[in-house]
Amino acid sequence: MDLYTLLRRLPRACYAVTALTLYLLLLWMGGQETTVAHLPGRDDFSKVYHVVFYGGWCALVWLSMRRPSLLVAVGLTMLAGAGDEFHQYFLPFREARLTDILLDTVAATFSALLMSALARRTASS
């Protein structure tokens, strides 16, 4: 059994709930100054955190869709990244950056392309 088939065995709602829970935790924890201050390698690995979180989040969104769409998955991830940056704008100890939204979108695009390739590979076999 290939990876994509295995991932599709879980109900879509599991992926949707997981994505929503992770996003709400990101917003809540990102709003806590002590949490942000103690992130390991915050200055050096900030962009890596963006790539890992939003790339993974896009894959969860993809798996939660009945008929997965690259454009929808990337668009929702971009909106989530923009929402996070909007939230950071109002926090005195955080900075909102357009480059972070762009990075989130690039990570989501690669993730959605990977999921699309896995789906096509599964469909052809």
Average predicted confidence as pLDDT: 94
Oligomer: single chain
- Indicate the structural class: mainly alpha
State the order of secondary-structure elements, H for helix, E for strand: HHHHHH
Largest sheet: none
Shape: elongated
**Low-confidence segments:** none
Roughly how many Å apart are the termini? Answer: 11 Å
Assign a percent range to the helix content.
over 70%
Q: Please indicate the percent range of residues in DSSP E strands (runs of 2 or more).
A: under 5%
Helix tally?
6
Radius of gyration: 16 Å
DSSP E strands, number: 0
Summarize the structure in words:
The chain is an all-alpha fold. It is 80% helix and 0% strand. The chain has six helices and no strands. The chain has helices at residues 3-8, 12-30, 33-37, 42-64, 70-89, 98-124. Helix 2 (12-30) runs parallel beside helix 5 (70-89) and helix 5 (70-89) packs antiparallel against helix 6. The longest helix is centred in the last third of the chain and has 27 residues, at 98-124. The chain is elongated, with a radius of gyration of 16 Å. The protein starts with a helix and ends with a helix.
Summarize the structure.
By secondary structure, this protein is mainly α.
Question: Which features does this protein show?
Answer:
mainly alpha; 125 residues
Chart the SSEs and their pairings.
Blueprint lengths: L2 H6 L3 H19 L2 H5 L4 H23 L5 H20 L8 H27 L1
